[in-house]
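CORE FACILITY INTAKE
Project code: CF-77B
Contact: R.S. (postdoc)
Sample description: multi-component assembly, two entities in total
Requested service: structural model of the whole complex
Turnaround: standard
Below are the sequence entries exactly as provided by the requester. Do not edit them.
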Amino acid sequence: MKVRNLPILATLALFIIMFGAGSIAFTGFFSVQNFLNLFIDNAYLLILAVGMTFVIISGGIDLSVGSMLALSTMVSSSLLEKSHLSPVLVIPIVLAMGTALGLFMGYIIQTFNLPPFIITLAGLYLARGLCYVVSIDTIAINNEFWKGVAHSTINLIGNNSVSPSVIIAVAVVLAGLFMARYTKFGRTVYAIGGNEQSAILMGLPVGSTKIAIYALSGFCSALAGIVFTFYTLSGYALNGKGMELDAIATVVIGGTLLTGGAGNLLGTVLGVLVYGIIQVLIMFQGTLNSWWTRIVIGFLVFLFCLLQRIFESGKNAALAKGRAGQAPKAQAAS
Amino acid sequence: MLAWKRLSRSKIIWPLITLGILMLFNLFFTPHFFRIEMLEGHLFGNLIDILKNGAPIMILAIGLTLVIATHGIDISVGSVVAISAGVVAMLIGGDLAGHPKYPLAFAMGAALVACTAAGMWNGMLVSWIGMQPIIATLILFVAGRGIAMVTTNAMVIWLYVKPFALLGQGYLFGLPFSLYIVAFLLLVTYLATRRTALGMFIEAVGINPTATRFAGINAKSILFWCYAFSGFCAGVSGLVVCSTVMSADGNNAGNLAELDAILAVVLGGTSLSGGRFFLLGSMVGALIIQTLTTTIYAFNVAPEIAQVVKALVVYGVSLLQSESFRARVAGVFGRREVAA
């Protein structure tokens, strides 16, 4: 067993325990369909989290994802219902918009060497404000294609089924896994997170990669917004409020280090499953209101960050031990 | 002449100029902007409104200035405002006859304790656990709204206890009462940081925490108390907000307050990369934000859309604080003064 897989195994154990506890406590909890529902209900979050994983591995942060998702739902519903554009045009326009906004933020962060959190925090408010510029009211979607996608199901083995959104989300995860492991872009992302200075000295395209990371996150947010409208069939400016923490939480619970340099998309998938199971457990429990989900998620982020710190200090101690003869003082200082 | 030279070198001149430009704009484009009337012994007018409505942001900005000076950030302040309002409203209760459930002082004290505890939680995460401030405070930024909603049972609580209205709506010697709270907090913070070595310690932590620790200063404890103080300030601000509208709404109390407060501090000349901080500058920054908000409303723009303008201001100010941006602008103009 590799040490670096420990956080993911902890998440897996957490998921199994929670699913097991739910199955024992509530009748009708344990079923394959209930497991698949976790993907159906959180497909949009999975897509957001994929973009976020790349951002966090690179040592950055993107706080704008929740508002970007809302903006994407608003623009797509407005273009469909008010401008009566065909979905063939709407989807590329929305995706291009998300990518462009991400590109814009990435460009500012990289070119002017500004902290990502403040630029994406401003992006959070900018995108949320733009939602209201589009419309203050909810826009219901009556487009045939959209309704078709929303209501169709894809049968798997037995009587179990998933929605098309799940297929999109799984495709995004697979594409992300491929990018992270087998492309120059992916390796550069890990290198930047490990040590940006070294990455520059190695001659890696750090600047363009950093901009591309935020553009990718913008693209994922826009796609997640479209998937979200498949789920709700409407655009609403308050959609996705606080979802930036959900996305960051799933990534952190999935074992990606907040300091960057290490992480795995499969862990993020597990993180989304844990998030989903918390929601389902609170729903089954019945007496707690849905705001408890936010509180529990906040607490889990805290727990996993604590775990990461302990894990890191353990690793540093091991490193210091290994180099005991050479420079014990330098290690102790860091 | 000497006074002018000192003023032009000090950092406060830029926020003052910005505020002046905004005021000038209003002088020409907003009718009756500068009119102040005396009604029933109280001063009324746009300028007084700016001071009064700006008070909650000014209070937040006092605490946040210290946090940002340590090279940190606290984005949970808006949610802590909601917690403060929620706790005080829950303890006072929505009795229509105006009888508080618990004594007012107890309710307000409990709210302040809860908010200081929230700040201590942030401080603990940042200083002892060593989380990045943005992540540490993001937890309460989101979960705090959840806590506020749970305390008010996801309902808006309306208050009818008359004396409580003094904080946000009352007047003393013709001026809004909330201004005296701001002045008191500002004075205490100013004396504590500038008449003792505390302010220098905070700046030292912001510039180089390791060196500060080696110099024998307990950097972690300073970090911790800065966040705790920010939580306390958010609590005070929450009481004022709750008293102004006489209700506690977990969703809307302190909504976007973190954006306004961060902007106020940054506009006031305190850099997001820590170090030197300017309490008075932050106050001017808060007034700039409130004037901007009032101006935007005067043009009949929906409050929700105003945040687009504010977000653009954040971009502008961040760019001005960026070394490489200033170097570029200087390069374009071929002059060194611009970069300075």
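Facility notes:
- The longest strand of chain B covers residues 36-39.
- Chain B touches chain A through 47 residues (CB under 8 Å).
Invoice: internal transfer
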